[in-house]
Amino acid sequence: MSEAPVTVTPTDDSGDRTARLPFPPIVLAIAGCSGSGKTTLAAELARTLGGVHFHFDNYYRDLATMPLAQRALENFDDPALIESPLLADHMRTLAAGCPIERPLYDFSTYTRIPGRTETFRPGPFLIVEGIFALYYPELLPLYQLRAYIDTPDELCFERRLKRDIEERGRSPESIRRQYEATVRPSSLAFVRPSAAHADLILDGTGALDWKVERVLTEMRTRGLMLGAFKRV
């Protein structure tokens, strides 16, 4: 890529968890449907820019009060399952250059791990990624650039099918049932309409390098690269 990774140490040598960046990070949002390629793009942008990748998976609501069988039936592609007030509070803290203690989520039980958090520190670039990254109105003012990956449903399903078989050991039929019952309807209701809030629409069928360069070009146009590099 055109820019070499930037090296910035966000905390001092004391390891103080309250230490903050000397400047607010540049915050980028990457949204798209499940299987659109947003996670891969966000991770590559974080690597290229020397930033950090922040996703929403830790913020699913704790369903410990429900029987396990009932938890498994919840629609995790519905934004109501995200604890958005906590997410927004943590996002505002990160956007100010300060670290957070984010919850840990156990997807095997659909519950928060009791009494445990992990420290997450912002970098000079904060790459925020999730299917609902452009959905919550309270998050939109925090982003300096908002990108949406527009990927056909057929390709999204193919990618999700491959991932769930290889990484989660699920059967093709169970994946298809879930996709048709909750994933696709939710994407049509909540995710695809959020593209209206994007500054940049990316073709999800394009090569990763092409998508990264599109984002970097837009950042240069907006002065986001120059501003960040001057402060390093």
Descriptive notes:
- The protein has helices spanning 38-49, 68-71, 84-95, 153-168, 172-191, 208-221, 224-231, and strands at residues 26-32, 52-55, 100-106, 111-120, 125-129, 145-150, 200-203.
- The protein has seven helices and seven strands; from the N terminus they run βαβααββββααβαα.
- Helix content is 37%, strand content 19%.
- Strands 2-5-1-6-7 form a five-stranded parallel β-sheet, with helices on one face.
- It is of the alpha/beta class and 232 residues long.
- Mean pLDDT is 89; it is low at 1-17.
As a whole number of angstroms, the C-alpha radius of gyration is 18 Å
Side by side, the strands of the main sheet go: 2-5-1-6-7
CATH 2nd-level architecture: 3-Layer(aba) Sandwich
By CATH, the topology is Rossmann fold
Write the layout of secondary structure elements.
Layout: E1 26-32, H1 38-49, E2 52-55, H2 68-71, H3 84-95, E3 100-106, E4 111-120, E5 125-129, E6 145-150, H4 153-168, H5 172-191, E7 200-203, H6 208-221, H7 224-231
Parallel strand pairs: 1-5, 1-6, 2-5, 6-7
Antiparallel strand pairs: 3-4
Helix pairs in contact: 4-5
Short description:
The protein is α/β, with parallel strands linked by helices. The protein contains seven helices and seven strands, in the order βαβααββββααβαα.
List keywords for this structure.
single chain, 232 residues, alpha/beta, Rossmann fold, five-stranded parallel β-sheet, 37% helix, 19% strand, disordered N terminus
